[in-house]
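re: ur msg from earlier - yeah i can do the 2-acetamido-2-deoxy-beta-D-glucopyranose complex, just paste it... oh wait u already did. ok heres what im feeding in:
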Amino acid sequence: MAPPHRQAGRVARFAGPFPPLRGSVALGVVAMAAVAAATRWRLLLVLSAAGLGVTGAPQPPNILLLLMDDMGWGDLGVYGEPSRETPNLDRMAAEGMLFPNFYTANPLCSPSRAALLTGRLPIRSGFYTTNGHARNAYTPQEIVGGIPDSELLLPELLKEAGYTSKIVGKWHLGHRPQFHPLKHGFDEWFGSPNCHFGPYDNKARPNIPVYRDWEMVGRFYEEFPINLKTGEANLTQIYLQEALDFIKRQQAAHRPFFLHWAIDATHAPVYASRPFLGTSQRGRYGDAVREIDDSVGKILHLLRDLSIAENTFVFFTSDNGAALISAPRQGGSNGPFLCGKQTTFEGGMREPAIAWWPGHIPASQVSHQLGSIMDLFTTSLSLAGLEPPRDRAIDGLDLLPTMLQGRLTDRPVFYYRGNTLMAVTRGQYKAHFWTWTNSWEEFRQGVDFCPGQNVSGVTTHSQEEHTKLPLVFHLGRDPGERFPLSIASTEYLDALRQITPVVRQHQEALVPGQPQLNVCNRAVMADSQQLHHRGSPSVLFCCREIMATQSKSAHEGAARRACAEAGQLSLGHRGRHL
Ligand SMILES: *[C@@H]1O[C@H](CO)[C@@H](O)[C@H](O)[C@H]1NC(C)=O
Ligand SMILES: *[C@@H]1O[C@H](CO)[C@@H](O)[C@H](O)[C@H]1NC(C)=O
Ligand SMILES: [Ca+2]
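and the outut:
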């Protein structure tokens, strides 16, 4: 049973979402007055199944998570984007609550999405690599790792509360059949296991498949064209129709639904359909944003049309910061923040975030709660009247008290890159234990995670350790992380006094999951038989990954030997063959 204070919280919270009880159901209500509200609607469902009629049975709210890909904090009008081209999202914010201090759990797609759906840091779920120190990793086609069966995903848990779940768009938690979204709680899927990279030659590498449920219905650049020259693709329109259709069907069936709308038009190569191309002041990236904004407007409009807006919780955010490597043509804006995707500076991890639930979340609110993408897991369970799993560490907070009562909860934000805790924020203070952007090798080849931004000793191209004397920034006065506090100041000591115990506690209790994303591990590579073939895509990928890291870890040593054996890397002469 939940502790009494939590149940009490739920009683107050749940007074709202339920439609008025009438007729035969009312009898049950008296008996249930003393019952934990968390289980209230489930009992009523049981009663209604026993013949009390579906219409009178209260339903928990629908949950709609709008997850953008590589959209930055600064990309929406409401966040100050100067072109002001997102009227629908701006209105959503005006009708709901804006979270300016909302964070993802990792600056890259796959781990961030794993964190949302498990409520756990990727270091716990295994969505990281030990190929190198502080390396980001995702699920390229060659990898056979994915979301472990032992992880409990949000849609699996929501099933207990009668929800039907659909994911539209990018999954990114593994390619192999055992990682299919329908094996992890989703009832429906339309989309792809990966980014829309390509086109590939279909010999060494096929184009990325697109699925409807279990069936592969085509591939990007083939049945689902993306014109790289003009930027034209109809995918956002297709994803929009999938969402509208699902919402209508669930509403007609009187079933609570969870829709995870994980679209990807703002991930390079960015795209838009013809009516939106060329319409933005910001170029092609802006065209993609405009089409998304228009689609969000249509989704919210449908909820109102069907009279389910007050029974549908909607949250808008992004999986990681804008990809400045693709900017300005194919990347977005991180507003005043430093660097972008792939980094643990604010630009890589702070996300646009809007909560919307008319009649429940008061309009025009700004919450300074430090929020996390992992909170969407815990908050969604709370909306469904469910408790988070107790047999594992959960990092997400229930944000309902914040959204409904304006409550603020002191909580840290952990910034990981792969296996390494890079930084921690508590309150206004952020301490960096490691700084790194990318390697000099990569940087000299033109890969820049922080174009136009060089903060000496901060945006470093070698991995710099600061665990003894962290670099500390006050994010209120210095959101751009440009002026580290003087280590001689009392403010610095005070900040560390707040942060150090939180870090110690976190690290002492941490049990890392088995790493799933080691690209150079033969056991997890798809074409391990071919690993000895020079030029095999996975070997090339593996070796490039190694080249890009500065680490000297044992794992990397083994991976390096594998690459050397495959003839792609001569030991002791890094970079010679690449
Ligand atoms: C998008 O759809 C329109 C209308 O059906 C069609 O004319 C166009 O060729 C499609 N574009 C792509 C890139 O698929
Ligand atoms: C950034 O500035 C520092 C100090 O001026 C300099 O040493 C470093 O090379 C610069 N980094 C880049 C990537 O230009
Ligand atoms: Ca992304």
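cool cool. Residues 284-305 form the longest helix (22 residues). ping me if u need the other ligands too
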